[in-house]
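Sample intake — YIP1 family protein
Collected from: Paralabilibaculum antarcticum
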Amino acid sequence: MINIEYLIDRVKLVIVNPKAAWEKISNEEIQLKDFLTSYILPLVLIPTIASFIGYGLIGMGSYFQVASFSWGLHQAILAFLGAFLGVLISAFCIHKLAASFHTHVSLPNAVKLVGYAYTPSWLAGVFYMVPSLSILGLVAGIYSLYILYLGFVPVTNVAEDKKTNYFVVSLIVVIAVSVLLSLVIGAVLLAIGLNTY
């Protein structure tokens, strides 16, 4: 069950005061299923629904992409699967990499780290309703990486001398996973006929 008041308070804390958020969040125990359904799912629905509206109903105008149901569905599925799989795969990699940097990060904690870090990107997904404004999502993406950076040491407990290398490797993984998922999911959707027409 989604607690809307809790969700809004937590999102506000992560966006407005990420340092304080990580102080509060880093030691919280989460149930993976509950976190996925009560925090990640509602936020992922923002870019998913906005993508369908923007690309399926509004479009970008005659010079670019006109709206079509098929393209809207394509973009919505891409947003939804990309977000969910992106969090899980990135978190799994961070979890597995931990031993190489002489620390231990449980999978739920890695999911928590990536999930909270993605918060600004998912909120900025509202811009997909007007596809020409979707570029503003890049600003939110940069802020997401900043939030990931702030939460990295509190969640991973990595030693001072290892934190830079672990963070840089994890950052590359998060970006690579996002790009690869977009390419793979996009290609599959095009292959099954969800295209611009």
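Post-analysis note: The chain has one domain: 4-191.
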